[in-house]
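Need tokens for this chain, all 401 residues.
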Amino acid sequence: MRSKKKNTGNEDHPKSTRVILYTGKGGVGKTSVAASTAIICAETGFNTLVVSTDAAHSLSDAFGVDIGSEIMEIGENLYGQEISVTEAISHHWENLKNYLTALFSSQGLDPISSEEIATLPGFEEASELLYVNDYVKSKKYDVIIMDSAPTGESLKLLSFPEAMSWYMEKMFPISRTTAKIFRPVVKPFTNIPLPDDSIFSSMEGLYKSLRDVKNILTDNDVTSIRLVTTPDRMSLNETKRAFTYLLLYGYPIDAVIVNKIYQQDTGPFFKKWRNTQSEIIKEMEDAFHDVKMFRANLSETEPNGIDNLRELGHHIYGNENPLRIFTRNIPIKYSKTPGGYRVKLRLPFATKERMRLYNKGGELVIELDNWRRVFYLPQTMASKQPVSAEFNNGFLNIDLR
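Here are the structure tokens for all 401 residues:
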């Protein structure tokens, strides 16, 4: 049962489960920010689940309680979980993994190698995402706060739903009907195991779940991704890259949180640090001018335990409701032009030198650094080829003819 919500005097209550994901460079304090947000939401009266998808779990350290792989109650309206990758794979993928292990073993691989290869790239990430999908659909929680892994791992996590489609199509190109026809004919002549109906059911369920979780995480009315950073050059550069890559995959970023800012009373020893931080914060304001920015000073003590985390949460959000959607962006737009079409994609910190794009069988493929996104073009545009691309005010305009 959901708890009764207090009247906060605004219209920022989630009409459905709200998902807020925090990520950032390692060491910027994203776990503390995620945990403090969860406390504010819970104490406002919302049934709140805070989930760690970081392999180096630290939610337990933040709250000062032992949070395990099962959901546990931390306080009134507040629940926590540190997802176990092993248990997640077993829960969501066991049937499919067993088939792949048998398939690779039939080709001469030893059992240990077969099992390792059967854990396809991204299995771990997808398992974590599927938990979130389960929790949203259960409607048990008003708010799900995700304490995600550092930026690179988070991007792997969030790029997985599309990438997995390729693996599924290559590994399972035959249909359930075809398998039923050929299984009794082929079986006497080969030791290669053909997938049975339970495998196809797992595959179909996987496709649907991955589509569902992608829809959840790209829905601006449901999900917000918030980038946590600190006012130093390395963190700024990584935040700009993460911002761009997340937009490439269509994820809604509604806020940037600048953490661990030195206050003016830190004395002369930190004067240069304060000056450097002020300069970088000004750069951040310019770089993320159209995104809500929050600031948090470096606290005198570690923000551990309920009381300190609550104080941090109030310090970050002030009178703002953390459940609000602070910024709305449309990452991609399609429009008609004389003689063709235009794809307008928001990529504020990308450059042409780091990008490659082409049309492959009706799919617009964009490669940016080490990340690759496939856009399934509308039918009217599927046969068109990119003839030009230019950057304009943070947008990449691609003309197709």
